[in-house]
Specification:
CATH topology: Arginase, Chain A
Number of domains: 1
Helix content: 25-40%
Strand order of the largest sheet: 1-3-2-4-9-8-5-6-7
Strand content: 15-25%
CATH superfamily: Ureohydrolase domain
Distance between the termini: 40 Å
Order of helices and strands: HHEEHHEHEHEHEHEHEHEH
CATH architecture: 3-Layer(aba) Sandwich
CATH class: Alpha Beta
Shape: globular
Radius of gyration: 19 Å
């Protein structure tokens, strides 16, 4: 799936004058000689969710996000490369993750920052593996910071990889390749993670903020703590699980949150990461259009993807009448 398949007519633009550029107008299939900028990859997979006994449907997530993203206006010159989808159609999650890793590595090798649209949160292991492979022998020395916006640690033990295991797999990959595991979580729910998971997070040196701590009065301290982590990092991988948001805000996920974190705070963290200039890879996980309501979650995912693509926003100055 690519934007070539989802461009849609927008009759509301007919008769308008001036710039009416939308995302669908600036997306191009990835050419062989492209370099720089950002590139989209879809991870059309929910095998990890299925293995984790969740509600499947996230395999249609990339298409739903692209459709909403395609309609958003672009306020300046931009080009987005679309590298298409990696699909898991035969239940072989491990092969799909390896294929995603290869595509992420290929973009990074060309200086293109991947923005991966999921798919279940099993996307995270494929994303990170691609980054590690891109760094090759330099991986152990690189101070990589993994930031996860999520209600869950996703550090589970299981006989097979699934949507609840990716960051444990990342920790094991770091150990196997002699790299430090630096993992920072925002939005963790005390009621969505067992004592065993909190203890595993402690042993792995994970730093986290609970959803209950992420309120307006605490945000200055949180952002100050985040800034220290960003300053200490060489490069950042950001993963956004849409179930970090309140369930009534983002219903289209496998496990909607009873409390969650307000979208404005999620955007504050995303903006701080982007402003650091160190973001090299990002993904958005758990978009499930089968469970969405009026495309609400897909719209939020598209809004976040827009930010991660760093599309230009240069609006005319407001008049006295607004």
């Amino acid at each position: 799936m690519s934007f070539i398949d989802v461009t849609v007519g927008l009759p509301a633009d007919q008769g308008e004058d001036g710039l009416i550029l939308r995302v669908k107008d600036v997306v191009r299939p990835l050419p062989p000689d492209a370099s720089g900028g950002a590139g989209l990859i879809g991870f059309a997979c929910d095998e990890g969710v299925r293995r984790n006994h969740g509600r499947p449907g996230a395999a249609q997530g990339p298409s739903a996000i692209r459709q909403m993203l395609a309609r958003l206006p672009v306020h300046g010159a931009a080009v987005i490369h679309d590298a298409g989808d990696v699909a898991c159609t035969d239940g072989d999650l491990e092969a799909a993750q390896a294929q995603l890793a290869g595509r992420v590595t290929a973009l990074l090798d060309r200086g293109i920052r991947p923005v991966v649209l999921g798919g279940g949160h099993e996307v995270a292991y494929g994303s990170f593996l691609g980054l590690a492979d891109h760094l090759r022998d330099g991986f152990p020395a690189k101070r990589l910071l993994v930031i996860n916006l999520d209600a869950h640690f996703d550090l589970r033990r299981a006989s097979r990889p699934n949507s609840g295991t990716p960051f444990r797999q990342i920790a094991e990959l770091c150990e196997a390749r002699g790299a430090e595991f630096r993992y920072l979580c925002f939005g963790i729910s005390a009621l969505a993670n067992t004592t065993a998971l909190f203890e595993r997070a402690r042993r792995l040196g994970v730093e986290y903020w609970l959803d209950e701590q992420m309120r307006a009065g605490n945000m200055p301290a949180l952002l100050a703590a985040l800034a220290q982590h960003l300053d200490a990092a060489d490069a950042i991988y950001l993963s956004i699980d849409l179930d970090v948001l309140p369930g009534w805000v983002a219903p289209g996920v496998s496990a909607p949150a009873a409390r969650g974190v307000a979208l404005e705070f999620v955007e504050d963290i995303v903006d701080a990461v982007i402003a650091s200039g160190k973001l090299v890879l990002a993904d958005i996980a758990e978009m499930n259009p089968a469970l969405d309501r009026d495309g609400q979650t897909a719209r939020i995912a598209a809004r976040l993807a827009y930010r991660l693509l760093e599309l230009p926003i240069s609006l005319p100055a407001a008049t006295a009448n607004g």
